């Protein structure tokens, strides 16, 4: 993935623009001469750092809203990280102790990623880092330089749902909704793991594992067991994932007793 | 009244707020963008009983970003309890940091406020406390001689239990144990508190908005009107968010002191010590029956504990008073004050634990009588509540058991334990009956109508909450039905103390109360618009607005329990079936499948109702397979302090669940015929699994959770194998 790295390249004018830099400038409507003029004014540091105050709102728009909490004046061990989240890059000054989870929630207002235990035990904070599911509460934000982070907000376009989101909605794979973003990120990454032929604890005959495995219900349950749902929507979550995997409808597991059943039960 | 629209009640529509939840856009308490907010971290005591003798904040104060450190020495003076051991009700005051005394391990003793979460968390670790320590009282068993009779749950008896036991042909006299369990909703308890012009604004994770506002107002001794509580989304509660707890008071106190909004999140570790739990119970059961299966006596005695500063009793015996027709019955509750935090309602308080004891004991007695446990229950079914002689508004327990038996394939069950095997697995089937009160409380709501582009749009407002229960959806469906407009023209706004008052979410009254509250507001709007026209024509809501030449209209409505409700015993009923496979060498077992049948009034939305039931079954399964909070025997702290030690069910623990709803509309319960479902699902699940384990192994497991080592070490019942 292309990335903006202000620290390696102090003068944005001196080098080729990355794809993302070009994209940002395009979005700003800066092309040709105006782009060159703009770049000449931001020679002191990278485009992303200097330009961010001017166009954060537009570029990060709906996905990353303005951070209402002012940056604290004094941070311990300040570090600067370009956090690339959902295809947008945000340069941040961070306390070195800050987790990716807190950076997303408290600095970027991406509160879709949830804090459920802060100890890597519940899965509510699951995001995808370079396509793999990771616990953002066990990931220091400082370690995410150059990595591609996908959160629940970035799974689909603003008005669209990712097929997994749609399946969770259809199968009621949640109740309170708090573990849901983590469950969905986990489920999306899980199907990719199956495509890549990764084994799990319950995989039988690990030696014979191939790519594009169709996961059994037990496999899905095992592979989703790192995401706790205290409301107990597990069965609906499994149904949603199975439907996305197979493309076939999974029927609901509730029914109403018929008048005949009622009559029989009363009389017998 | 117009008939049900396709989108009205009874239809399995997707959750109306679901698209926000699956996109991570629903805002929970700590997620509101409050400008200028700072972060707080609470500090817990490291002794279970004694007094703080010295506090050193100097190191913490030196840290970058630290704004304020609050301890009992500089805390705002709050309202104190007027009595000793006040009952912990949902609107009780919650004083905090008012004295150097420590009542339990983990009690809040301080709060650090800093610019960032990291700074607050680090500085909190640097505040030093010295204590004078006393020997804590933390053993229910050792302190049993201190047991007293609580005010709240008085003793009950009818008939003569000694005589009833004497005339019994078969008897069961056994004791069941259930451990401390924790609620652990996935959303950590949290608040963002601010003060403006003497008024409190709190984004707080609370199940009951009005009660939270009362607690805050009374604790700070300000009028309730000056408190605004906001909770549009609550990430689960299960009883732990029923009342505003001390962290709510701490954050509000800090916000006033520093003049800035304060965000305080209770950590998962603190959710073991500061957000209540379900208490440990010892339940002594005595049951007697004649050869033909007629129950002659039932005694249910519960020993439990409360804190040393508040009283709470989980009434385990409630279910034993009313579930079966038995002439001689005695129920009692005793409490021992211990140096632990006050226990409080956890999903189906009383029923979840009480039904484990009752429905296990019923199974034990059926085995002794050589009767099928379903037939034994049906034999003692009744349409009159034996505890008060009131008729049940509706009671379909027999139907639940029979229909469930068919669905489950009960006829394949062998009476003799261990008779079904497959390889190393012993296969057992278990059943249990369930009941849970279906209360209904006064509920108000506001309806706002707007005529736009030839369509009527309705907004319903009430201070109700949706803690995952489906409130948004069922209220939307109710308004859609009574206004006869599609659901996508209805929006529902909840969780704000500015809205009309409801009882909040708890006690299984939510669905019935909220739906009826919305119904009355909608019907009032139609009636009032008709009155203005002086007509009783059956006009659509659109025609009513148009003929009145109104582009908008708003009104309120309040629903209340009827006289008929008060003259009846109103309960939901159910039956649980479980198939369990036990490995005969290791004691490891798997719940293979479960069937639940519920007779719980009109089902407003089968999709969300199914969610409530499987959620209850999952937590009920948790009670059996793993959940227990253990206390260090000398120091009184929890040694199970994270999800690594306190195991809640995960996806692989669960199996297939089928749910059957019985068609009923209980119009005595309320006008819409709706009864509670949120707590019925957990009731007696533990017993159905334990009974299945008996059917598989011949072992009676009376001590939850049933871990493999307990199961492998247990001896089978004489004559069972």
Q: Approximately what portion of the residues of chain A adopt beta-strand conformation?
A: 5-15%
Total number of β-strand segments of chain B? Answer: 24
Give helix % range of chain A.
Answer: 25-40%
Rg of chain A (C-alpha, Å):
23 Å
Q: Given the structure, what is the number of helices of chain B? A: 18
**For the residues shown, what is the average pLDDT of chain B?**
96
Question: How far apart are the termini of chain B?
Answer: 62 Å
User: Helix/strand/pairing class of chain B, anyone?
Assistant: alpha+beta
Helical content band of chain B = 25-40%
At the first level of CATH, the class of the largest domain in chain B is: Alpha Beta
Q: In CATH's first tier, which class of the largest domain in chain A applies? A: Alpha Beta
Distance between the termini of chain A: 69 Å
SS-derived structural category of chain A: alpha+beta
**Total count of domains of chain B:** 3
**Number of strand segments of chain A:** 6
Q: What do the pLDDT scores of chain A average to?
A: 80
The parts of chain B where pLDDT drops under 50 for at least 5 residues are: none
Strand residue percentage of chain B: 15-25%
CATH superfamily of the largest domain in chain B: Aldehyde oxidase/xanthine dehydrogenase, molybdopterin binding domain
Please provide a written account of the structure.
Chain A contains 9 helices and 6 strands. Chain A is α+β, with helices and mostly antiparallel strands. Chain A has 3 domains: 1-60, no CATH class; 69-154, Ubiquitin-like (UB roll), CATH 3.10.20; 163-246, Orthogonal Bundle (DNA polymerase, domain 1). Chain A has a 5-stranded mixed sheet with strand order 2-1-5-3-4, with helices on both faces. In chain A, strand 3 and strand 4 form a beta hairpin. Chain A is elongated. Mean pLDDT of chain A is 80; it is low at 1-15 and 40-70. In chain B, the strands form 5 sheets. In chain B, strands 3-5-1-12-9-10-11 form a 7-stranded mixed sheet, with helices on both faces. In chain B, strands 7-15-14-13-8 form a 5-stranded mixed sheet. Chain B has a 5-stranded mixed sheet with strand order 16-17-22-23-24, with helices on both faces. In chain B, helix 12 links the parallel strand 19 (455-461) and strand 20. The mean pLDDT of chain B is 96. Chains A and B meet through helix 4, helix 5, helix 6, helix 7 and helix 8 of A and helix 1, helix 3, helix 11, helix 16 and strand 24 of B. Chain B: Residues 23-135 form the Aldehyde oxidase/xanthine dehydrogenase a/b hammerhead domain. Chain B: Keywords: Molybdenum, Oxidoreductase.
């Amino acid at each position: 993935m292309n990335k903006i790295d202000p620290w390696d390249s102090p003068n944005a004018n001196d080098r080729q623009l990355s794809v993302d830099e070009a994209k940002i400038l395009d979005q700003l409507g800066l092309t040709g001469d105006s782009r060159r003029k703009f770049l000449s004014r931001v020679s002191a540091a990278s485009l992303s750092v200097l330009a961010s105050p001017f166009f954060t709102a537009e570029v990060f728009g709906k996905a990353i809203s303005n951070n209402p909490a002012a940056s604290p004046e004094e941070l311990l061990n300040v570090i600067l990280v370009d956090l690339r989240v959902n295809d947008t890059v945000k340069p941040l000054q961070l306390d070195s102790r800050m987790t990716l989870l807190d950076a997303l929630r408290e600095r970027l207002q991406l509160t879709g990623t949830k804090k459920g235990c802060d100890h890597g035990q519940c899965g509510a904070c699951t995001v995808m880092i370079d396509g793999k599911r990771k616990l953002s509460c066990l990931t220091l934000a400082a370690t995410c330089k150059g990595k591609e982070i996908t959160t629940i907000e970035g799974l689909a376009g603003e008005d669209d749902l990712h097929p997994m989101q749609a399946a969770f909605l259809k199968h009621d794979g949640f109740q309170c909704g708090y573990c849901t973003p983590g469950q969905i990120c986990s489920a999306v990454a899980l199907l990719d793991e199956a495509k890549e032929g990764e084994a799990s604890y319950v995989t039988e005959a690990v030696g014979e594992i191939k790519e594009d495995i169709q996961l059994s219900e037990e496999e899905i349950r095992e592979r989703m067991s790192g995401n706790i749902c205290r409301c107990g929507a597990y069965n609906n979550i499994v149904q949603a994932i199975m439907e996305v995997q197979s493309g076939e409808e999974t029927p609901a597991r509730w029914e109403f007793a018929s008048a005949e059943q009622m009559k029989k039960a009363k009389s017998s | 009244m117009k008939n049900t629209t396709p989108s009205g009640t009874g239809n399995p529509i997707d959750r109306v707020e679901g698209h926000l939840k699956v996109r991570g856009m629903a805002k929970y308490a700590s997620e509101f963008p409050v400008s200028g907010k700072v972060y707080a971290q609470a500090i817990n005591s490291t002794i279970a009983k004694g007094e703080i003798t010295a506090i050193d904040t100097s190191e913490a104060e030196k840290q970058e970003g630290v704004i304020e450190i609050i301890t009992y020495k500089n805390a705002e003076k709050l309202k104190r309890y007027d009595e000793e051991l006040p009952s912990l009700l949902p609107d009780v005051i919650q004083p905090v940091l008012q004295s150097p005394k420590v009542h339990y391990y983990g009690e809040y003793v301080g709060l650090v406020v800093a610019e960032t979460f990291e700074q607050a968390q680090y500085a909190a670790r640097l505040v030093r406390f010295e204590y004078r320590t006393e020997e804590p009282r933390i053993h229910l068993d050792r302190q049993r001689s201190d047991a007293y009779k609580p005010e709240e749950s008085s003793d009950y008896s009818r008939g003569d239990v000694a005589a009833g036991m004497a005339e019994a042909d078969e008897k069961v006299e056994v004791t069941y144990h259930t451990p401390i369990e924790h609620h652990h909703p996935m959303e950590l308890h949290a608040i963002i508190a601010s003060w403006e012009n003497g008024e409190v604004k709190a984004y707080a994770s609370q199940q009951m908005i009005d009660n939270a506002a009362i607690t805050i107002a009374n604790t700070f001794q300000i009028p309730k009107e000056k408190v605004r509580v906001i909770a549009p989304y609550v990430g689960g509660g299960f009883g732990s968010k029923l009342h505003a707890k001390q962290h709510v008071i701490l954050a509000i106190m800090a916000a006033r002191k520093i003049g800035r909004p304060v965000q305080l999140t209770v950590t998962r570790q603190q959710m073991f010590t500061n957000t209540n739990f379900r208490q440990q119970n010892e339940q002594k059961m005595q049951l007697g029956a004649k050869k033909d299966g007629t129950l002659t006596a039932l005694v249910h005695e519960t020993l439990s504990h409360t804190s040393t500063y508040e009283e709470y009793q989980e009434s385990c015996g409630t279910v034993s008073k009313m579930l079966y027709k038995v002439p001689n019955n005695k129920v009692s509750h005793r409490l021992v004050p211990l140096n632990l935090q006050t226990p409080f309602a956890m999903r189906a308080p009383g029923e979840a634990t009480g039904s484990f004891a009752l429905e296990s004991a019923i199974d034990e007695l059926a085995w002794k009588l050589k009767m099928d446990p379903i037939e034994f229950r049906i034999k003692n079914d009744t349409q009159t509540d034996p505890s008060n002689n009131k008729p049940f508004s509706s009671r379909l327990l027999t139907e639940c058991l029979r229909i469930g038996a068919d669905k489950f394939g009960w006829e394949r069950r062998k009476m003799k334990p261990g008779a079904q095997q497959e390889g190393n697995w012993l296969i057992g089937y278990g059943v249990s009956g369930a009941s849970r009160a279906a209360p209904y409380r006064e509920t108000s709501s506001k309806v706002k109508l707007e005529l736009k582009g030839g369509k009527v749009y309705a907004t319903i407002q009430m201070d109700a909450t949706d803690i995952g229960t489906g409130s948004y959806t069922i209220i939307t469906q109710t308004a859609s039905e009574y206004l006869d407009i599609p659901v996508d023209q209805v929006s529902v706004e909840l969780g704000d103390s500015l809205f009309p008052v409801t009882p909040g979410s708890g006690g299984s009254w939510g669905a019935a109360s909220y739906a009826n509250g919305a119904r009355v507001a909608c019907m009032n709007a139609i009636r009032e618009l008709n009155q203005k026209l002086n007509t009783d024509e059956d006009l659509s809501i659109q025609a009513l607005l148009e003929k009145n030449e109104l582009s908008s209209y708003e009104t309120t409505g309040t629903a209340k329990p009827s006289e008929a409700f008060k003259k009846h015993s109103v309960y939901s009923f159910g039956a649980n079936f479980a198939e369990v496979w036990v490995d005969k060498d290791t004691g490891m077992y798997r719940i293979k499948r479960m069937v639940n049948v519920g007779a719980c009034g009109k089902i407003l939305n089968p999709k969300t109702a199914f969610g409530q039931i499987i959620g209850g079954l999952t937590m009920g399964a948790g009670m059996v397979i793993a959940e227990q909070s253990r206390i260090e025997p000398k120091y009184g702290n929890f040694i199970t302090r994270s999800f690594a030690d306190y195991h809640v069910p995960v996806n692989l623990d669960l199996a297939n669940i089928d749910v059957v709803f019985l068609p009923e509309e209980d119009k005595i319960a309320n006008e819409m015929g709706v009864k509670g479902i949120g707590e019925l699902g957990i009731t007696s699940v533990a017993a159905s699994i334990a009974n299945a384990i008996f059917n598989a192994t011949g072992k009676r497991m009376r001590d939850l959770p049933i871990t493999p080592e307990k199961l492998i070490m247990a001896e089978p019942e004489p004559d069972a194998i």
